[in-house]
Amino acid sequence: MPESRTIQLVDLACTVNGRNVALRIEPRETLADVLRERLGLTGTKVSCDAQVCGACTVLLDGQPVSSCTLLAVEASGRAVRTVEGLARDGSLTPLQEAFIEHAAFQCGFCTSGMLMAATALLEEQRHLSREDVVHALEGNVCRCTGYVPIVDAVLAAAEAGQ
Amino acid sequence: MTIPRFELHVPTSVAEASELLRRYPGEAVPYAGGTELLQTMKLGLASFEHLVDVKRIPALAGIAVQPGGWLRIGATTTHREIERSALVGERLPALRLLERQVANVRVRNTGTLGGNLCFAEPHSDPAAFLLAAGARVRLGSAEGERELDVDAFIAGPLFTDRAPDELLLDVRVPPARPGRGHGFAKLAFFERPAASVACRIDVAEGAIADARVAVASACESPVLLERVGQTLVGARGADLDDALGAAVEAARHDVETFDDVNGSADYKRHLVGLLLRAAATSAYEEATRA
Ligand SMILES: Cc1cc2nc3c(=O)[nH]c(=O)nc-3n(C[C@H](O)[C@H](O)[C@H](O)COP(=O)(O)OP(=O)(O)OC[C@H]3O[C@@H](n4cnc5c(N)ncnc54)[C@H](O)[C@@H]3O)c2cc1C
Ligand code: FES
Ligand code: FES
Fold first, then answer.
1. In chain B, what are the domain boundaries?
2. Do residues B214 and B251 lie in contact, with contact meaning Cβ atoms separated by under 8 Å?
3. pLDDT tens-digit readout, A104-154
4. Could B105 and A70 be called an inter-chain contact, meaning their C-beta atoms sit closer than 8 Å?
5. CB-based contacts of A75: which residues, under 8 Å, 6+ apart?
6. pLDDT digits (tens, 9 = 90+) for B189-248
């Protein structure tokens, strides 16, 4: 019994990097789709598309989520932060500075996810051990750096009092 | 990969959710964190026209101690909420430790305990723990509620005793008390564990009075190994090591493992033994702590 159904659209009202966003979207759109395709925020990358690699990490009310597999409607009424929201008026955060200083990226594909996951950690915890950093970044995969410079950079940012 | 089109419903009561599930037989499913469901829909392994979001239903939320000391964890509680709950930390430190190691921080932030149990994935760490802990689950629909053991709820790989129009409301863990300890140990090479073992030990008058052992990931579905727990009963201080040896032998014999990317069936039997020793030792230590 084929039935033609009208396509459901839902309201999405949230903030992205502090700015109000109001869109009408399909429920099936992922947060990564909305950020990249509708808002042009392509700093968020999609790689595995399976919640494993962390390239798509953004913060939802301060907590890391996989935007590749999160429905965008879940952001309703909440605050989304992406890598584009880290630097203020062109000045990088201590974490971003530390990434440059420690050569914590090569190709850069994992970097925005790493930065967001580490930002959430640094905002919650001031005193970090190497083990804390490794645990927090366990779900973020990097094919280039071998991880050591990334962990060093996060520890340096913690020292610098991010 | 795009997720095939669906309609999203956001009910605020169990009755409303259950009626929606019944209105679209075979086409509607509950949706919580979506960490399993959306992935299977993306891959085309399952397709649903209607997703019924259960996260706005107050009856499914929260963590609280109930009269009698049972710990109630609502189905929509995320792994991260459990990991960070002071109540869980005080009463069930082994569960807190377990939750801290589930998947990665992003999956823990969105994935729920209810979704984990209802998906009945063979690699469920919480299922192993809840089996050993003797936990009960409560299911609800427009018709009413029922309660059953986690053991009866998990019916097989990717299969539970839940009717299509029922929701998992909550999980209840028997009281933590002096003389009781829980332990958990797992080994993972990839995102999902290769093997995990959970254990609950009750000690009375210096000897093990009761022990329950459950295994997940290494076998087809999380299981309670009843005979293995019994091998520990009666053991006290000096002969604990012998009893553990016997339990390890029994577990390696009774668990039905299989070959996969994590290793051969033999290797996984070996792992189960090692993890059992670790889990039982920490359960015993907690049970005998002053
Ligand atoms: C990369 C990755 C790694 C993982 N690693 C681990 C691990 O190490 N250990 C582990 O234990 N798990 C692991 N998981 C599984 C994870 O724990 C579960 O994905 C998560 O908890 C499922 O919950 P959810 O809310 O996302 O469920 P959903 O995807 O929303 O739902 C899953 C299923 O349960 C049903 N459902 C959900 N809630 C209810 C309810 N209240 N009543 C009735 N039915 C319901 C849905 O209809 C669906 O069939 C991993 C998952 C991923 C993606
Ligand atoms: S793209 Fe989302 S986790 Fe890999
Ligand atoms: S810098 Fe290339 S993947 Fe991390």
1. 7-53, 58-173, 182-287
2. no
3. 999 999 999 999 999 999 999 989 999 999 999 999 999 999 999 999 999
4. no
5. A12, A14, A31, A60
6. 998 999 999 999 999 999 999 999 999 999 999 999 999 999 999 999 889 999 999 999
Global pTM reads: 0.97
In the sheet that A19-25 helps form, which strands lie side by side, from edge to edge?
A19-25, A10-16, A79-81, A57-60, A63-66
Q: Provide the pLDDT confidence category of residue B1 given band limits of 50, 70 and 90.
A: confident
What average pLDDT does the structure give for chain B? 97
Question: Would you call B34 and A117 a contact, using CB atoms and an 8 Å cutoff?
Answer: no
Mutate to test the interface with A, among B47, B56, B105 (most CBs of A within 10 A): B105
ipTM above 0.85, yes or no: yes
Q: Report the CATH architecture of B7-53.
A: 2-Layer Sandwich (3.30)
Per CATH, the number for A10-78 is 3.10.20.30
Q: What are the distances in angstroms from CA B139 to CA A127, B6, B162?
A: 43, 25, 8
Q: How far apart are CA B36 and CA B58, in angstroms?
A: 22
Which ligand 1 atom lies nearest to the CA of residue B162? 43
| Cβ neighbours of A64 in B, within 8 Å | 105-106, 109
The pLDDT of residue A4: 55
Q: Identify the nearest ligand to the CA of B53 by its number.
A: 1
Q: How confident is the model at residue B38 (pLDDT cuts 50, 70, 90)?
A: very high
Contacts of B24 in chain A (CB under 8 A): none
- Annotation: CATH topology of B182-287: Enolase-like; domain 1 (3.30.390)
What is the nearest CA distance from A162 to chain B, expressed in angstroms? 21
Which of A33, A45, A52, A112 is the pocket-test mutation for ligand 2 (most atoms within 8 Å of CB)? A52
Out of 3.40.50.920, 3.30.465.10, 3.10.105.10, 3.30.470.20, select the CATH number for domain B58-173. Answer: 3.30.465.10
- Tell me if A11 sits within 8 A of A76, measured CB to CB: yes
Cβ–Cβ gap A70/B8 under 8 Å = no
Q: How many residues does chain B have?
A: 290
> In CATH, what number does A94-159 get?
1.10.150.120
Q: Which two tokens stand for residue B163?
A: 């009717």
